[in-house]
Amino acid sequence: MRLIKELRGTKQTLYTCFLRIETNVYAFIFLRLRSIRFLCLVALTLPPVSTSIVLLTLRAIDWMREQRAAKTSQHFVALSPQLPWYFRLARGQEAPTTMKVTELGFTISLLRTIFVFNHVASVLGGVYDVADRHKGSDFLTGFRFEALGSADPTHGRVDYVDGKTAAAMNLTFATEDSMIIKVDSTKKLDPSGPGRPSVRLRSTNEYTTFVVVAHLTHMPQGCGTWPALWTLTSTDNWPAEGEIDIMEGTNDLGPNAMTLHTSSGCMMPHVRPQAGTTNSTDCNAFINFNQGCSVQSGNPKSFGPSFNKAGGGWVAAERSNDSISVWFWSSGDPNVPKSVSGWESKVDTSTFGNPDAFFPNTFCDIPSHFGPQNIVIDCTLCGDLASVTYATAGCPGDCVDFVNTLPEAFVDAYWEFKSITVYT
């Protein structure tokens, strides 16, 4: 059931509140306009919260509306009705059912319920300590080259090379404060031979609950490209132990797409507290052509040429047992947290603000769907996804032919990282 209310304030501010219950078990009872308005205004100021908290809040409101309609309360204080579960927890006994509910009592209870959940929401998120930091000439010490050759799992027209070959071809090199990771842009390819040389890196350490913060000034762009910064299970048990796509897209088609891929049984609510737009809600990699549950950023500077023109930015992802979140701040964004931009030893994700993508555990048990993860950086060409979107992006001819014959088209197909920091 959906409730969509557009509420216009005195300052001509448009507030849109999307409240949706993804279950048939509980019925949502409509609040009067002033209550909806207040709830929406509060919701817009809250940090990201688990949808389970939102649903629990709605259950509380439903119950109080029913009690008010019945003119009775299950509580001992007439002016301050309490939920039965709260009464049992506080008093150690079943709640009485004889007291009347007044207008003031209901209002006080509603405000108190919202305040309680506001407080709970405000302390969600976590504090993490720095575990690994990779930058400049030390960047590659935390990663290993995955020399898959042409055996790209996504069937791209690439040849993933080893570290020695990458260095010899100048596909990876470091400055004092940056790490460059490139696709070859020098040679034409034999159509029957290996693909275009590229690099795929995987972190040597794996992480279970963590925050990863990447500061980039450039990402691969151009027709045929499919760059990705993501995390993947350290075993061959994919997708049973999950995949988190932090930055991904094809053929310069932005904004950034953030996606989870899992085994069956992991679903996302369509409407949830996030800045991005939900594209799909079933994370199961075995259906919908492995679309996963995807969210597209609302920030046009989060991917491709627009990202590069803006000077890059910071992307952060948190994986906890309660949720997975992704944030993006463009270069020069005054809202980037100091702990993110300042390479501090701790981060507190409750200060990060509304995420671009929020994946709660409401209908997905995250610990059972996500095992320990490695960080992966790559750029494939064409393949399962980029070949499909190639024509849509207005790219010329055939994707594979383009990759084979136009090496100069990949001059801008490179990553430039200022740093990657992992907190646990």
TrEMBL record:
The chain crosses the membrane at residues 36-58. Residues 145-394 form the GH16 domain. One of its GO terms (molecular function) is hydrolase activity, hydrolyzing O-glycosyl compounds. The keyword Cell cycle does not apply. Keywords: Membrane, Transmembrane, Transmembrane helix. It comes from the Eukaryota. It holds the Pfam family GH16_XgeA. One of its GO terms (biological process) is glucan catabolic process. Signal peptide: none annotated. CDD domains: GH16_fungal_Lam16A_glucanase. PROSITE patterns: GH16_2 (PS51762). The keyword Transmembrane helix applies. PANTHER family: GLYCOSIDASE C21B10.07-RELATED, GLYCOSYL HYDROLASE-RELATED. This is GH16 domain-containing protein. It comes from Agaricus bisporus var. burnettii.
